[in-house]
Amino acid sequence: MLQCFAAPALAALAVLPALLQSGAPASSSASAAQAGAPVGKDSELSKLGVEQRDAAQRALGVEDVRARVNLASKWLLDTQRPDGAWGAGVIDSVQFIGFSVETYYVFQYGANSLAFMALSSVEATPERDAALQRSLQWLLDARMPKRGNDWDVDCSWAALYGFQAMVGASLDARFAAPELAERIRRRGQELYALLEKNQEPLGGWGYYEGPAVSRRPTWSTSFSTSCVIPALVRAKELGWAVDEKVLARAVRYVEQCKLPGGAVMYDIRPIPRRPGESIDNVKGSLGRMQVANWALRRARSPGVTDDVIRAALEDFFEHHQFLDVARMRPIPHEAYYANAAYFYMFAHCYAAQVINELPEAERAAWHKRLRAHLAKVQWDDGSSIDFPNMSCMRTAGTAFSILAYQAGVPGAKRPL
Amino acid sequence: MKHLLVVPSLLAGLALTSCATTPSAVSAAEAPKAAAKSDAKADEAAQRKKQRDVEYAKLALEGARMEAESDARNSRNAVEAAERELRSARTEQEHFEKTVVPLELDERALSVDGARQNVAEAKEELVELEAMYAQEDFAKTTKELVLMRGRKRLEMSERSLALAERRALIAREFEHKKRAKEHAERVIKAESGLEDARARAKKSAFDRQTALLKAEHALEDAQRALDAAPSGA
Predict the structure, then answer these.
(1) CA atoms within 13 A on the CB side of A364
(2) In angstroms, what separates the C-alpha of A272 from chain B's closest C-alpha?
(3) Res A42: pLDDT
(4) Staple partner for A382: which of A71, A240, B27, B232, CB 3.0–4.6 Å?
């Protein structure tokens, strides 16, 4: 985790001015700073508490959602490169100086996988289908990610989201032509092999090395592990060669990360972190609680009942200001309960997914509450971002927002 | 300075007196008269010497007084320095006994407790990790790498605890006793030093009085010798 905390704040100072010129949402830290408002954590938290209530009252209807999804999709289409990719596989933020060179590429691959899934979930148009085809081709043709160095195992992000994208593509009728379907399956199996190779002994997937440097990494996190479990379940159902034990280990890992009270540990520890203002407090694990419940429910883990899901969602909305205040902060984990800026979009995406695990009759109300918090951070150009540095964060943030919105749109495709 | 100015004027006076007569003026017929003159010159010289002795005695008395003041000041300073050293030695001894020893013993105890807690945590973590790893026969080499770190961490923690306990024992049984003895010796030495300084001051005062008395007597003697000399010489 050292590297995670080593990323300096300076980069954000360079990036923020550019963001400020492109229609930042009213509640962002950036716009608060621009307006000369107090930006201390306490004053922001108080301000955001009020904004959170306002946002909940401004809940959007499904038609509003369609408009927002269209805007976000347009941003994806506008920013896609001719070769089908988004962003660049090179460093485009000084905040990531020091990472393995491979990491810039694997971040791009992961973000492109998310963008592909997001675009595949929206209503088809000829333009979108063409963009989707180009995106898929890029994901299929790009070289396989590799481990960056002794400590940097960020290739996991490419494997985790690339695999999900391939499973999603396999389930999409637009890509059912035999030859293409076979290529998708083959790439999916290659990414699965990377997952299998890097599954740590306790069963999770991480992105940095742990206590001992070894060929198989020795550290993992609950949220990275959770995010891929449903795709593994679906891949097995598709008949892909997924080892039952790999899945079982991952499920057990996430089960063991759950703490009494509902919080989900950041990473599994033989002895949990001390209580207090810890990342493993409920207020520090609002997003992890959703993704873990979603993953375990999809894997039919017996402990995740509807009541467990509801309680976690209530916690999510009750303590939402801890995600708000962390969003756009340039230093990872600098906010209360060690929340990091990049928890925001991830958390909302998986809150939307786990809502759909509840009885159908109650989903709409939850989605209504959720989408208010997506809308308030969406920029005028349709994009969304929570962590201001590399371009892939904007691609991923926008994709997360689309996937979250679409989860609440009746009849929408759900590639996750 | 008065005495220094008196001496040259006397010498000048004597020089002028010697120029008053010349050998070429003396004749054989006047021999008795010449002899008388010669006696007068000798008397004058003796008178001059007595006058000088008085002046020298005055100067010596002044010097003795200055010397006495200097000695008195030195003795006073030496006694005060010895008193300060004794106060300092006693304060440090008290500080060591009442503050330093309990503080250092508490620090050592905390160090031992911390090391003991580290051992307990290392042991707990290792046991938990072994139990978690034992759930499935998978990734044996990687598990062994991690477990080795855990076992070594426990071993190092146990060695750290042993070191902390030894350090506490050494502090309690040797270092504190040694330093207590050093403080006690410093107090004794300071007490002796003060006694010596006071004795030296007393002896010095006595010597000063004697030296002054001698100088005063010498002046009196010189003055008396001068006064006793024939006035017509």
Answers:
(1) 6
(2) 10
(3) 61
(4) A71
| Residue A210 sits at the chain B interface (C-beta within 8 Å) | yes
Tell me the C-alpha distance between B24 and A85, whole Å.
140
Taking CA atoms, what residue in A is nearest to B146? A212
Q: What is the structure's pLDDT at B37?
A: 87
In the prediction, which pLDDT does A143 show?
98
Distances (CA, A) of B45 to B13, B56, B179, B198: 12, 16, 74, 49
Q: pLDDT tens for residues A238-271? A: 999 999 999 999 999 999 999 999 999 999 998 8
What residues of A are in contact with residue B138 (Cβ under 8 Å)?
A: 201, 245, 249
Say yes or no to pLDDT of A219 above 60.
yes
Under 8 Å between Cβ of A159 and A195? yes
Alpha-carbon distance of A89 to A175, in angstroms, equals 26
CB B180 within 8 A of CB B97: yes
Domain ranges, ordered by start, for chain A: 42-407
The secondary element (H helix, E strand) that includes residue A22 is: none
pLDDT at A52: 59
CATH, domain A42-407, list 1.50.10.20, 1.10.10.10, 3.20.20.70, 3.40.50.720: 1.50.10.20
Quick check: A245 and B136 CB within 8 A?
A: yes
User: By the CB < 8 Å criterion, does B124 face chain A?
Assistant: yes
Burial of A36 by CB count in 10 Å (0-12 exposed, 13-18 middle, 19+ buried)? exposed
Which of A147, A150, A214 should be substituted to probe chain B, the one whose Cβ sees the most B Cβ atoms within 10 Å?
A214
Please report the ipTM that was assigned to this predicted complex.
Answer: 0.75
Nearest CA to A202 among A284, A257, A274, A272?
A257
